[in-house]
Amino acid sequence: MADNPQAAAGAQNANQPQFALQRIYVKDLSFESPNSPAVFQEQWKPQVNLDLNTSHSKISDNQYEVVLSLTVTTKVGDKVAYLVEIQQAGVFMVQGFEGPQLGQMLGAYCPNILFPYAREAIDGVVGKGSFPALMLAPVNFDAIYAQALKRKQDEAQAEAAEGQAH
């Protein structure tokens, strides 16, 4: 038993994983409506395509910037009604997570936090372009991260097998 229970508790807390959102911001945002005003005359039956990507970089010992990049291309027939690109970013303090846990935090957990902000920004800019509201469906970043991890593992195994075959 420690002589100073508060000091012992403080030492235990220092080893505990810690996570904190420090800042959320739009890093880049663009909106194009290349076929306006003609596209406003078309019957509104849009085909929406969403491309997304995540990246992260280390800022300092326990700080990371995570960037969620979304590109929404909306077409009516064969004409592009609008194109929205956003890089929604955040600065996160992540401490006490290593290896796969850290990868999961930066590759899935943080993008889950950023997505609603990106969705709101996209909806706002689409409305300012005089188009009907666009509410993107939720995205399962855990599943996307797991697929990316499996793809990397499969590629590594294929390269290893190819190296042994030669």
TrEMBL record:
Compartments it resides in: Cytoplasm
Major site of localization recorded for this protein: cytoplasm
Subunit structure: Homotetramer, a dimer of dimers. One homotetramer interacts with 1 SecA dimer.
GO MF entries: unfolded protein binding
Family membership noted in the UniProt record: Belongs to the SecB family.
Function, in words: One of the proteins required for the normal export of preproteins out of the cell cytoplasm. It is a molecular chaperone that binds to a subset of precursor proteins, maintaining them in a translocation-competent state. It also specifically binds to its receptor SecA.
GO BP: protein folding; protein tetramerization; protein transport
A GO cellular-component term linked to this record: cytoplasm
Keywords, ordered alphabetically: Chaperone, Cytoplasm, Protein transport, Translocation, Transport
UniProt keyword Protein transport present: yes
Keyword Chaperone: yes
InterPro entries in the cross-refs: SecB (IPR003708), SecB-like_sf (IPR035958)
Protein name: Protein-export protein SecB
